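hey so i finally got around to running the thing on that chain from the lab meeting. sorry it took forever, my laptop kept dying and i had to restart like 3 times. anyway pasting the input first so we r on the same page abt which one it is
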Amino acid sequence: MFNLIPMLRQKASKADNSASTAPETVSREDSNSPAVEETTATTTETVDEAEINPEKENKVEKLQAKLVEFCQKVPVPEKVAKQFREPRSLHRRYWFWLSLVAGVGVSGSAIALGVVAWKLENSVPKAYDEVLTYAREGTLTIKSADGAVLQEIGPITHEKLAIDEIPEQVQNAFIASEDRNFREHGGVDYGSLIRASLSNTKSGEVVEGGSTITQQLARLIYLDQERTAWRKAREIRIAQKIENNYEKDEILERYLNLIYLGSGAYGVGDAAWVYFSKSVDDLTLAETATLAGIAPAPSEFSPFENPELAKQRRDEVLRRMAKEGTISQAAAESAIASPLETKRNKPKRLQRQAPYFTEYVQKELKKIVPEEALQAGGVVVETTLNNDWQKQAEKAIAETIAENGESLAFEQAALVAIDPRNGGIKAMVGGSDFSKNQYNRVTQAQRQPGSTFKTFVYATAIAAGFSPNQGFMNAKYVVDDYKPENYNKYYTDSWTSMREALIQSINVIAVRALVDVGWEPTIEVAKKMGIESKLEPTYGLALGASEVNLLELTNAYGTLANKGVRQKANGIVKVVNSKGETIYEAESKGDRAIDAESAAITNWMLEGVVSRGTGSAAKLDDRPVAGKTGTSDEARDLWFVGYVPQLVAGVWLGNDDNKPTKGSSNTAAAAWKDFMSEVVEDLPEEEFDEIPKELGDREGSIKAKPLKPKNQYYIYKPKPKPQPRVTATRSSGSTSRRSSSGSTRRSYTPRRAAAPARRSAPAPARRTYQAPARQAAPAPARRTYQA
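ok and heres what got predicted. didnt touch it at all, straight out
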């Protein structure tokens, strides 16, 4: 369409020339010159047509009047108003609307012009806030709690720069390359547009764009790349309106941050890193010109793809800068003489931190934010992750695998840390190497928790009113043909309190307590505390037979740290769209799982596990720690979950194929200590709540529902019969033995030959004890003792 502009000017010029030369042509009629005759005939024909069609002439005049009136209503930026006041045959704006008339084939209809203008005005946006908020579709940024970028997804600008952070040399290079009249025009450079139109007409194809920086920004934000006259008209109109709403520096800033410069680089900041591995502040003049030269066609002028062509473009930009006076001729010649050198690097937007965590966040994001909002792009997710603590967690897991993995036959490890007061995930390491295996052992691996589940059995018993000092028999125990065994098969055949049983992780007492409390209350309390996986009502539940994942197990322990109030584990604090509007914000609303007094007692019991029990490897020097170890069958899973009042963390060690390890839960506890000893430096020392003075006369907050086994009994070790004490004396080659009473003495002479081996007495048969149904002790009443 815009190729017709010069044609219109040419026609107007010819009409003026014809009018001025009419008398001369008539005077030459006597010369009989063929040329003069041809000219005279042409002139006569034109005059005769006007005389014959006066109505058409009136329509043209009316059209021109309407066009002038309409164009006068088109707003003109004050900063460029002076260029419109200059004497011209037609106003610049009028040329714009005349080109529309020519483009749609209107030959004199004011109504058609009005329709086209109305349609154009209604096809462009009414508001232009998106100029400052625009983001490409599908782009997503995930940030840590301190604002550090953890991951960027999609065609996004990583290095967003303010205009005063972009060196003037860089600004001038792009202006010289793309829009030398940028500071003067009002969004459209008509001179450049006409030149481009002539070049395109001459070549028969689009060889020059003629678009200003503002037009390019308008196309990038509001339009597609379709090459039609209508799209071009919209682009021009939008560019004019952008200029009306924003200052030149604002427009240039957005352009330099959004422009795609190839090789995955969006914006000049990213391009400086991708092509030269440096910040935009450190670019040389030649490097700056190289980036500016890429802009028209990134794939064609990339120094990585076509270095010779890229150098030609670079040199052209340098010459333009010298011509415009933004650099000296000497500086331009020196830069032109320099070789084209690059230092390739990956776009920073592809760099990723805390990959297991960010992957988890993306999955959770789809549950809370509509898909269309995510597809719109420009979404920023603010998370709970503590970047420093995350690095400590990664270090602890890496060192644990490096130092113990091979010798103890485990290949994987995982760690998660949670703020129990709000459920915020502060660190997450889901395995040894995300680049090799993205399987997250914190959230996806379902494993048997072993003895770590005992905590829920005892917490339920305490909430039901049991005293932590209540005793059960530490002996071989059988209930409905289920035979739990203690670690190393060691039994004392004596009464042991629940607290001591938890500290020493005695299996038979955990099962015996489950029988008295019941499956239903235990499962209900565990669910309320944070266990979300399915729990089977079996006797093995007390020893961790039902599978759980590390995140929910750690979250549930956090309920105890938070005085019995469960805060669901979460990683997302807020989600903001490209316009800065909050589309999701987390609510810190907890649910009480058990009463605060029962939580305090359970914490006290778990403190003993760390201070003098199986979890002693996790002991911290400067503050109290509560926690529990756990080992599944054949040491396939090694666990430790522990906490201070402000932070709970869980560690798992094992193999993805479920092969046995050679380790123990002490290794997991040691890894926990490596992590926590560093991060607690950021936390003030706090004590757990005090336990009540009276532990034996408490009224429970829940009701126990004891099981009714068909049979249950203990098996005691047989006690050896007492033997008389015998003393031996030796005198004069003979040996005599005296009984402890001193009444009997036996003498004998030693023999040279070896005495025959003594025959050992047959072992007495084992005694079994059949306990009455639902009774663990000889008497129905619970025996307690003060530890």
